[in-house]
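QA checklist item 7 of 12: single-chain prediction sanity check.
[x] sequence parsed
[x] length recorded as 190
[x] structure emitted
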Amino acid sequence: NVDDYYSEGALTNVLEIINNNGAPDFIVGNCNVFDNKQKLIYINKPLKVTPWHLLAGAYLPVNPSAYFYKKNIHDKVGMYNENNHYNMDIEFLIQASLVTQINYFDKDWGNFRLLPDTKTGNDIGNGILEVRKKKLFLKYIKKVPFNVKLMVALTNYSFRAKKLFYKMTKFMVLPFDIVYWKIDKLIKHR
């Protein structure tokens, strides 16, 4: 992906981490996601990169420009699946997470341009990006041990509960909050 690039100082920062004794096998940082006009859309921060978070679709690193790993990971899980033309990076992350701990660092290492005429851009536009990911997740959920399956289910329930709580809070608290601030404003302007 020739349009992805490292942040300034990323490689120096990564070298400092991996040159320390006991360096982790796999590290991931933040990735800035830009549109086709180089406007920042969001910063991907994959805070929790466990097998169950990956298989639940939570905290996915969005681009390989923001993660680094030791070569021996390929000895354990093989190379990228070149037959998977749409989410081979996610598939590799899932496989890697099952054999080693992936450590998150709150550092900006990668940059990704989300362009409309790319595989990812087209998948988003056609509404099939999430379908492809869910299909991949189901493939691996069938293969993982029971404890990982259980953690995937708990992670999914946790995220659903948080979304529901957010919606309820927005629906129940926001109107009262608006009224409070309007009254507060009236009182202060007397």
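[x] summary fact logged: The CA atoms of residues 4 and 112 lie 5 Å apart.
[ ] second reviewer sign-off
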